[in-house]
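Before relying on records like the one below, remember that each one covers exactly one chain. Contacts with other chains, cofactors or solvent are not represented anywhere in the record.
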Amino acid sequence: MGTQRSAMRRFLGTLPGAVEEEPFGPGVWVWKVGGRMVALLNQTGEPPSLSLKCDPVRALDLRAAFPAITAGYHLNKEHWNSLALDGSLPAALVEELARHSHDLVCAGLPKAQRQRIQLLASQGDHP
């Protein structure tokens, strides 16, 4: 399970414009783009959890399909999901949902910030 956590931290760091912070203390990492949260990885519990922004309709579908996906813990339950990193979710799905969260957050940024992030993505230069 520690390998999955490490892999997820590395993956989140590759999202264009992503900045890693630890505003809630040890063991709780947040990735932001343009000052807005994209992901929250909480390693203080067992299993660790990853909270990601999600389209509201898709969020409900995911919660119905996967027991390890629940409404965002301490977040807007309509727009955020929490994923239990217990090994039951395919890594490809978790990464795709992280990209989805990143895309949603970027879409809400001012045009100049979106263009900067698009430039970083096209250059493969992260953050």
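The CA atoms of residues 34 and 110 lie 9 Å apart.
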